[in-house]
């Protein structure tokens, strides 16, 4: 998990995620050319907002927590740069699944 | 049902489905050319999310459970690869019917 | 009503319908050419889902039941093939009227 | 009001209406050419559904009843043929006004 | 206010309005050419429906009553002809303001 | 604030606003050419409707009152002419901020 | 934080933000050409509206307060000029995250 100089607290039902980078070398140490590297749709949860605020003002906390490994949608999310680290902010409802 | 190295827990009202592959051989063992194979819109439920979260924060569990045989819509769903196995994540409300 | 090898249980507020085929012969036995056959917008209800699930999780059962004769909308519905029989899945709210 | 061989029971908040045909002859018996006949946007209510089903499953009956004379919107409605009689199914909320 | 041969009862939250025709003559009696006549966006309320029916079936009566002078939106409304008189049906929420 | 011959009572959650005209002369009395005059997005509240009517029929009064100085959105609002005075009707939720 | 001659009170769930300007000089005092200056998506909260008004008229106050450092979305917001200072009005739900 990245050590950030600033704490990023996602607002409402947003979730901050770091995408898992595809393997750059084969098991035997050979470099995999960028084009052959399969874009992974997996990532780690870095931070979770307090939750969805309903029409009645009720807060519905997310199912996710820091450290969870998740399956990401092919589209969506806002890319944000913190300390030159590229992270992504998704809405809780955009995350497809948890991976264990 | 596929043996996956990772457990995939669909989020919210999502359902993980494996599409039933069309028959590749006739009863008498002849290979059916790919074009003649009729795409099946049937599949097995692999995993079910906890359910739809309503505006009041209530959780409405799905009618479906692991192992159910279902009728799939012609479109929709997110294709996800787990251990090179192609699975599909649908919203519970996209599934057309159960088959018994 | 068609004898199906599988039971099809429509999900939620869906209704499975078999469209009534237009008459192919006149009363005196003459064949009506396909173009002259008037597409009927009537059908029989084969199966009914448990009903619409509201935002509060309440289930509102359909007004329809197996065997009802209904008036179908000109568009909409998902065509599904079961045992080579072409059936149509409509949302309960798409059905125009009951015929008695 | 048309004598129909089948009873048509509109579903939910639908209303079955027969459009009033424009006068084909002047008072003194002269035929009015079709183009000069002014399309009337008035009709009679033939049958009324049980009413709008709300998100909580409550049924809100229509203000209209069989025999009411109504003002029709220029667009909308589904044309249905029953015993070769052309009728129109509107949603209750599409009807503009009652005429007395 | 126009004397109509039929009573028009607007449905639900609709309001029947007669648009005020622009002045055709100047104070000193000169005819104002049609192009110079400024289209007025004012009118009189002729009839008011029972009111908006909410999702719970509650009826919210309109703020308007017969005879009110109102400010009309530049667009919207359905033109209806009653006894050759051109009137307009607006939704209650389309009316901009009352004029006193 | 303009003296109007008619009272304009905005309907529901509407607010009647008069846009503040940009300065036409510099402090030392020089005329500022129209193009150089910076369009102001500020205005005074002339009148306020009774408020937003919710789905349950509850009325939510506006935060604004007659005489408030407000920040206007770049778009939206309906221009209305009263006694040749150009005023603008906004929805309460379109007003950006109050200025004190 | 800018000293404004007027107090700007955002309406409802709006938040007034001042965008943090990118560094114009390197640590060693060299000027960074405008094109090389990386647009920052960070800003300070100047003022916060009373909060979101729900369908029932309940007010849900914002999570943010004056002085908070926030992460801004790449799009959205209304640019407003106060005392020649360029500020931005966002809806509370548009703000991506808080930075500490």
Automatic annotation (TrEMBL), chains A, B, C, D, E, F, G:
One of its GO terms (cellular component) is mitochondrial matrix. It comes from the Eukaryota. The gene is HSP10. InterPro entries: Chaperonin_GroES, Chaperonin_GroES_sf, GroES-like_sf. One of its GO terms (molecular function) is ATP binding. SMART domains: Cpn10. This is 10 kDa heat shock protein. Eukaryotic CPN10 homolog which is essential for mitochondrial protein biogenesis, together with CPN60. Binds to CPN60 in the presence of Mg-ATP and suppresses the ATPase activity of the latter. CDD domains: cpn10. It holds the Pfam family Cpn10. Keywords: Chaperone, Stress response. Gene3D superfamilies: GroES chaperonin. Transmembrane segments: none annotated.
């Amino acid at each position: 998990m990245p050590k950030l100089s600033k704490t990023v607290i996602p607002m409402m039902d947003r979730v901050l995620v770091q995408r898992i980078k595809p393997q750059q070398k084969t098991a035997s140490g050979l470099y995999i050319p960028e084009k052959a590297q399969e874009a992974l749709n997996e990532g780690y949860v870095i931070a979770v907002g307090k939750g969805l605020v309903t029409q009645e003002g009720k807060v519905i906390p997310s199912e996710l927590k820091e450290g969870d490994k998740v399956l990401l949608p092919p589209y969506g999310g806002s890319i944000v740069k913190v300390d030159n680290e590229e992270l992504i902010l998704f809405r809780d409802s955009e995350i497809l699944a948890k991976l264990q």
